[in-house]
Predict the structure.
Amino acid sequence: MKDEPLRRTGRDLAARAAYLERMEKTDIFISGAGIAGMILAALLAKRGHTVTVCDPSTPADAMSDEDSDLRSTAYLAPSIAVLEEAGLWQHLAPDATPLEALRVMDSTGWPPRQTATRTFRPGDLDLPAFGQNVMNWRAHRILLDALNDASRVNLRLGVGFRSMLARENEVRVTLTDGSRLSAALVIGADGRNSPVRGAAGIEARDRRYGQKALAFACTHADPHQHVSTEVYNGGGAFVTVPLPDHEGQHASSIVWMSTGARIAELQAMNAEAFDAELTERALHIMGPMQRITPMRVWPIITRTADALTARRTALVAEAAHVLPPIGAQGLNTSIADIAALADAIEGGDPGRDAALETYARSRHRDMAIRATAIDAYNRLCQADSGPLQALRSAGLKAVHDLGPLRRNVMMAGMGGA
Ligand SMILES: Cc1cc2nc3c(=O)[nH]c(=O)nc-3n(C[C@H](O)[C@H](O)[C@H](O)COP(=O)(O)OP(=O)(O)OC[C@H]3O[C@@H](n4cnc5c(N)ncnc54)[C@H](O)[C@@H]3O)c2cc1C
């Protein structure tokens, strides 16, 4: 009788060993199959790692779906190089529209009065285009199809990350369906409210602007000529990004930033009134405009994680940094994280401390500089009139008209030093 507890313990240990033997093992677990998570999974698989990715949501099939992401991303040249290595660009390219120029316009008052316009061209950097624009909902769909065909990637949609226990040699992950797996490295690519960031005990800091952004697509009477335009006025930037024609009509995607109150006012307008305001806000650059999709609303914040890594854990993309959507920096900065992390973990245990330190060191400075620069730029873009608005117009002219300064600013915007 006395031996009974010991015997039970022995049985328990054997059962536990068998359970652990059956537990799914993967080199790398990625929480989040957003655009960043999927690009990362494809790149890591190309480099020989086994990868499991999970996401509770499933991507939209059409632009009109209730949950489709109506933002678009301008993939800048360095990001396209990463997508090519991951074997993804060939799939995205047919849906891409080239960005052949960036026009920046300043305006004041309402109806807006134009105060400065300058156009930046990629030829200054010996490039045919600044980048290629793809609607996010299309990119989700295309990347998902590519990952479904990728070897070494186990994609688990409809199930989310719940918790993790990081040990010296592995991380045990529990998913929302109760299943568990073991990985050498866990990566949080699970967005601005990253559950992995929370589970790793990493705090994040916010800077708020009282601003929101409306994202949607529209058609317009005149062609965009592959030019993306940023128009400043009180409340923030208004950005048009070229899209392929929609049912035979010229089309662009729009990000319209303003105060929360103004965004609420715009959302409450009927279609005709909204389209009139839209055309006015765009300074009539492409003639009368007509919204063709529902609108999505995004709060504008800068959010920075206090650390990029913890034991056997790394954060990328919006889990690590959220930026206001100006200058096409958000996802492009995320793709720079992805490339740096893939390089840092090459050769050996992907979750080793030294590799994660290398990753954190390589990204810390760039992220901090970009967050500070975009924060300042966004505050300047919010000015309606007076000295700040005058400074903005003068600054735009100076940056453009001084050749070396123009090229330096363009290089920085493209991800260069
Ligand atoms: C209005 C607007 C316009 C923008 N325009 C541009 C642009 O032109 N160029 C640019 O470079 N960037 C742009 N950005 C930024 C860019 O869209 C984002 O950086 C990018 O979409 C975020 O990608 P992500 O994969 O990090 O996050 P998300 O797209 O938020 O993906 C996170 C994923 O994690 C999943 N998730 C959540 N919880 C869990 C869980 N428990 N377990 C597993 N998964 C989970 C979510 O379902 C989601 O699929 C813009 C941003 C905004 C707001």
Notes: Residues 22-207+299-413 form a domain with the FAD/NAD(P)-binding domain fold (CATH 3.50.50.60).
